[in-house]
Amino acid sequence: MGIFKEGFDTKIILAVVLVIALAVVFIYSGQKEKVVTNTGTQAAPVSAANIDSSEISVLEKNMEERIATNLASIKGVGKTKVLVTYTSSLKKEYANDKSVTNKTSKETDKDGGTRETVEVTETNQLVLANSSPVIVAEQCPQVAGVLVIAQGASDPKIKEQIFEAVKTLLNIQPSKISVAPLGGV
User: Fold this and answer.
1) pTM
2) Can you tell me the distance from the alpha carbon of 25 to that of 22, in angstroms, rounded to the nearest whole number?
3) pLDDT digits (tens, 9 = 90+) for 110-145
4) 25-81 pLDDT per residue, tens
5) Side-chain half-sphere of 163: how many Cα atoms within 13 Å?
């Protein structure tokens, strides 16, 4: 078969390389040199492992005391104890200084061939103030459940008032609230 001669093989290889080169040129021909710099703050989520467990304990204790104080103010409720649990810990987002640079350059050699180079540089740094990270936002965790133990909870009307007060105050589902009468010694 005379079709598969040596010269013909090199012509096929050159044609395939030329087609690939033209495809690359067409793909990148719409892009020009761009420099984008964003020195604003970007929020970066931080995992719960970075949060001190004492912060969540303080948050729970503060919430329990506030609820107990307010419920005790309702007529007929009397002495109350409150337990609040959360689904997760506090989440903090820190400020980041982000910079992205896109650079495209085209070169043409003396034989008419072109070469295009695309360079993308991205930097991301945590913003510090007095050697500590700047906090952009803090998100309180969701309430997992509330237990209210009150003297007046044996009365169905008082129990319903306590239940509605907690549901409204925390904006949580009724299934996450339990109200029980205070008993014991």
Assistant:
1) 0.52
2) 5
3) 888 888 888 888 888 888 888 888 888 888 888 899
4) 666 554 444 434 343 444 444 433 444 567 778 888 999 999 999 999 999 999 999
5) 17
